[in-house]
Write a structure and sequence with these properties.
By secondary structure, this protein is an alpha+beta fold. The chain is built from six helices and seven strands. This is Transposase-associated domain-containing protein.
Length: 233
């Protein structure tokens, strides 16, 4: 789902890519939307001491935190931006705590990562390379040791997940065919072979084990559910 930059929706509605394209063909772009600030770009400003012909672009100091602030607001599924001056209720208090994490650098003067962004990045790397917990924790220990004392880098995998879990996303895991033919879901949840290509669902256990290992699927689909109940693949 993407923010639709057409002249009608004005970046306020989330639509499927094909629907966004159709809207743009029909209605055209939002007038004067040259810098895509609602899609991850940052509006530059010119240096006050430079002339118009030699001015160079610099970015806001909060450039580091803005993508994660947008993530928090999008997950909230309601317009917290219009209510930031009002005292938060119990339900929204955790969002403002997350905003604080997104804005707070991991050590004073750091301009590359916030407390939340480093946690999200580390979990992304762990998932991408399937890093074991023990290795993950050792790497974190090394990173903390090489950064200034008192840094806000999470000390282990548990604390990293705990911080990111405040986003409120829950995952549903569904086994699927390694060739993307089918999902082992609902009526097919007990199947062990793809009915289209006959590929096995689970990997074979290597060697003899004292106790049977849990079956490990070749491929798995993850759905993430946000606060509104919407499901995201």
């Amino acid at each position: 789902m993407f923010r639709c930059p057409c002249s009608k929706h004005k970046n306020l509605a989330f639509l499927k890519p094909d629907d966004v394209k159709l809207d743009l063909y029909r209605r055209g772009f939002l007038p004067n939307y040259w810098i895509w600030t609602s899609h991850g770009e940052y509006e530059p400003h010119r240096d006050a001491h430079a002339g118009s012909s030699t001015a160079y672009e610099t970015f806001d100091e909060d450039q580091m935190s803005r993508p994660y602030e947008d993530l928090i607001f999008d997950v909230a599924c309601h317009n917290l931006r219009s209510n930031v001056e009002e005292p938060p209720n119990t339900e929204t208090q955790k969002f403002f705590e997350l905003l604080h994490s997104a804005q707070k650098p991991i050590w004073e003067g750091c301009s590359t990562h916030s407390e939340l962004s480093i946690a999200v990045r580390m979990l992304s790397i762990k998932t991408e390379y399937n890093i074991p917990r023990e290795c993950f924790n050792d790497v974190i220990d090394l990173i903390k040791e090489t950064n200034p004392a008192g840094n806000l880098i999470p000390s282990d995998l548990y604390r990293t997940k705990k911080l990111v879990s405040k986003l409120g996303l829950t995952a549903t895991k569904i086994d699927c065919c390694i060739n993307e033919c089918m999902l082992y879901y609902k009526d097919d949840v007990a199947e062990v072979v793809c009915r289209t290509c006959n590929a096995p669902r689970f990997k074979q256990n290597s060697g003899k084990q004292r106790r049977a290992k849990k079956d490990v699927p070749y491929s798995r689909l993850f759905y993430f559910q946000d606060f509104s109940g919407s499901m995201h693949q």
